[in-house]
Specification:
The protein has helices spanning 5-21, 32-35, 63-70, 75-102, 129-137, 142-147, 155-162, 211-215, 244-251, 280-292, 318-321, 327-338, 356-364, 368-371, and strands at residues 26-31, 53-60, 107-109, 166-167, 173-174, 182-189, 221-231, 234-241, 342-345, 351-354. It is α+β, with helices and mostly antiparallel strands and 375 residues long. It folds into two domains: 5-204, no CATH class; 245-371, no CATH class. A hairpin with a 2-residue loop joins β7 and β8.
Length: 375
């Protein structure tokens, strides 16, 4: 271990340099002070009891691949690219942990999917008095706990506190160079580091254009209510989330057709979510059963062993892919997504986007038994 603050600072900067040269477009450091006042998932010790600091970074996604996905041309290439970028981010974090351990410090990767729904079996309820006090300030709904959307440690909170990006209205982290079209990576360490400053509010390019809401096929982001989160000396604001099952149903592809009927995500389902949140879970069970009986879509994530044989595919993500620093790029992506047609599924599992009328005829030509799996 290093004995002086100068040596610790020098080594920390070397780790940040390594992360940047490995492909990150932004990197920063947060600690207990810069995360103070946040929810329980902003407590570094939930990931590792000895944690004092965290390195946080963002790896950009390819703009051309994003636009082919949003234009309803090719879902598979984006999905493969997203999976590989996640693996790159976790590899960068793993290597940084190796360097830290070599100097006598403890270090642990913060996996992107560290929620119970991602196969992580850790208890995400508050574990000490500090976390219980934070939970009273930021209460969690029973539905969030049931579905497993609460992270052990939130990469978004770490990224905002470390100045890697800032919260947009969508609730995604917006980087200065690539917007929200990034994959976040993080690692915690027992090394005590000074935090990098958060990005000032005046540098946040989110202008409340609400195009994240325009591309969302369901009602997931509130137009009238916000979430406010205190992290250190800065308060962060983004739109309040509605029932998480709304987002999950489109992301995993059990639903696809937008509630306005004018476009779809990549999911081929045509059943939509009910208006009342207390009816969402019932509908989610129904359409998830439908999806389980459809053909397997090519590609996708391999699920943990206890979560079924079918792979999980990415079928939405529009709210983060639309958010780009340049307003004209945002405008283009809104048009690509909302005017790109409606997704249908062929018998071999492949997905294709068609004009709405052609998609309706495609569904109508199915046998009643097969058609019932989609609408």
């Amino acid at each position: 271990m290093f004995e002086s603050k100068e040596d610790i600072s020098r080594f920390g900067k070397k780790i940040m340099e390594y992360i940047t040269h490995s492909g990150a477009c932004a990197v920063g450091v947060c600690n207990a002070d810069s995360l103070e006042g946040g929810p329980p998932s902003a407590d570094l010790t939930r990931e590792m009891p000895s944690a004092k600091s965290a390195f946080v970074f963002a790896v950009p996604l390819d703009d051309d691949i994003i636009e082919a996905y949003m234009g309803k041309i090719d879902p598979g290439k984006y999905q493969s690219h997203y999976i590989r970028t996640n693996i790159v981010a976790e590899g960068i974090a793993s290597s940084a942990c190796h360097f830290l351990r070599g100097q006598g410090y403890e270090a642990q990767v913060v996996n992107a999917g560290n929620t119970t729904s991602g196969g992580d079996g850790r208890d995400v309820t508050p574990q000490n008095d500090s976390q219980r006090a934070a939970a009273e300030k930021y209460p969690t709904t029973d539905i969030d706990m049931m579905i497993g959307t609460i992270p052990v440690l939130s990469q978004r909170f770490l990224a905002a506190a470390a100045g890697v990006g800032y919260f947009g209205r969508s609730g995604n982290i917006l980087t200065s160079s690539h917007g929200a079209s990034v994959v976040l990576g993080a690692l915690v360490t027992s090394m005590e580091l000074e935090a990098t400053p958060p990005i000032p509010h005046e540098e946040n390019y989110c202008d409340n254009c609400n195009w994240c809401e325009a591309v969302c096929p369901t009602t997931y982001m509130s137009r009238t209510e916000n979430n406010n989160v205190q992290l250190g000396e800065m308060e962060h604001t983004y739109s309040k989330r509605m029932h998480p099952g709304r987002c999950a149903s489109y992301m995993m592809g059990s639903a696809g057709l937008a509630e306005n009927g004018k476009f779809s995500a990549w999911g081929p389902g045509r059943k939509t979510m009910p208006k009342e949140d207390d009816q969402v879970l019932i509908k989610l069970i129904e359409i998830s059963t439908d999806m389980a009986n459809r053909p397997q879509t090519p590609g996708g994530f391999v699920n943990p062993p206890d979560q079924g044989e079918k792979r999980m595919n990415i079928n939405c993500s529009a709210c983060n892919l639309v958010c780009h620093p340049e307003r004209e790029v945002r405008r283009k992506r809104v048009k690509l997504w909302t005017q790109g047609g409606v997704s249908v599924q062929h018998e071999d599992g492949t997905l294709e986007s068609m004009p709405r009328e052609e998609a309706e005829a495609f569904i109508a030509a199915m046998t009643p038994e097969r058609r019932a799996l989609y609408e």
